[in-house]
Fold this protein.
Amino acid sequence: MKRTNVNIKKVFLRIFIGAIIIGGLFFIGLSAQNRKFSLNPDSVKNEEEKYFLMIDYGNGKTRKFSSEMAAETARAWDLLQQASAQSAVAVEIENGFIPRSIDGFKNTDQSKWVLSVNGIRQTNGPFEVFVKQGDRVEFKYEK
């Protein structure tokens, strides 16, 4: 009899986890429909309704993106993911969604990726940092 209770609990747990995953995928799909990235952020006319992302590789090379999102606030992580998905920016993460590597530039003891919003260095990871339209988000590889 105990075995039946354990199996029922496992079935309900799997159904619950599946529902969470499907709900999350549905939410991501809906929010992705409301996002567009531009590879030419300098052409943006109304800066107050856009999000801006710059990836600075620390060697003189930068990549700039602008994004239209329906929401007035987003996570810095959302912007990085949009750049990754739509512009072939390779991102590897470690605990807390912190970039371990962007386009092959990996964190080391001497260099690491640093997040700034409007020129202010952030102490939290990009998943915990909320930005609003018009903000300038930068991931910079610093030595």
Observations:
- The chain has two domains: 1-33, 36-142.
- Confidence is low (pLDDT under 50) at residues 30-39.
